[in-house]
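Hi team,

As requested, here is the filled-out complex form for the magnesium ion run. I kept the field names the same as last time so the parser does not choke. Let me know if anything looks off before we queue the next batch.

— J.
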Amino acid sequence: ATPIAMVSGISRSARSGVIVKDGRGLEALARVRTVCVDKTGTLTAGHPEVVDVTLFGEVSEADVRSLAAAVEQLSAHPFAAAMVAAAGSAPLPVPTQVEEVAGEGVRGRVEGRVVAVGTRAFVSANGASVGPADPVATGVPGDTVAWVGVEGQVVAAMRLRDPVRPEARRTVQRLNRAGVARTVLVTGDSLDVATGVADAVGITRVHAGCTPAGKVARVAEEQSTQPTAMVGDGVNDAPSLAAADVGIAMGARGATASSEAADLVITADRIDALADVHHIARDTIRIAR
Ligand code: ADP
Ligand code: MG
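And here is what came back:
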């Protein structure tokens, strides 16, 4: 694109709520044929609420809420705020040795016991517990479960409600009509949850249970056949945002790791800004041809 066209494209993007760090990001976006998207915070609103708690052990519901919130206090993950809110107003126990594993969960020592919150595999990683079957699905797209483990035993499942963004389906349609041949969901969440959200927004390719490195591998796989964008909001998305031909961060809450790794940052808390900026990118590059 000519410098004038590029300046115009960048300022149009800004008016649509998208920061373009460098004109090359717009050029890359115009050529993209595959768009990989994260689930939590990207296709969903990313402000989950705890809607119920299922107990599997001897630990009471009040203790589950308090222990989970205690280890989540310092986490920036969208689930963490939900856990802290769900614990009510009583002071939380102070955790030690807190350690967060991106895409899996957080664990720490609380009142002498190791408490873990996250995926099922993460909370019972040492095989110390056979654990319960999955709680019955609600059928509400975006509903998900965070497991709570104490000393390697699964003691509870906390259901989180994180609704699909109402404009997500239309965004996928707009991309598909504008030359994006393939949209792919890549998430750290379970296959059931991922498939429910993918169905709700009209995505047919799903990769669930991805670690941050797993997301990079999926993006690389797509890139080997077609120019590929990655769209995500979390710390767990930073490596795949950096690896893609163009990385696009949902940055409304300013998750700095993802914003720093990305070429474009959506500051509007709306996923349709993605279709807007894709349209602007194609317009900008076309002007110059
Ligand atoms: P996504 O790819 O959908 O944005 P993440 O990669 O952030 O999801 O997380 C994947 C899964 O790991 C979540 O669905 C959740 O089960 C678990 N998880 C990650 N971090 C946390 C945390 N701080 N607290 C609870 N669960 C977590
Ligand atoms: Mg996310």
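Two things worth flagging: The two ends are 7 Å apart (CA to CA). The chain is about 40% helix and 25% strand.

Thanks,
J.
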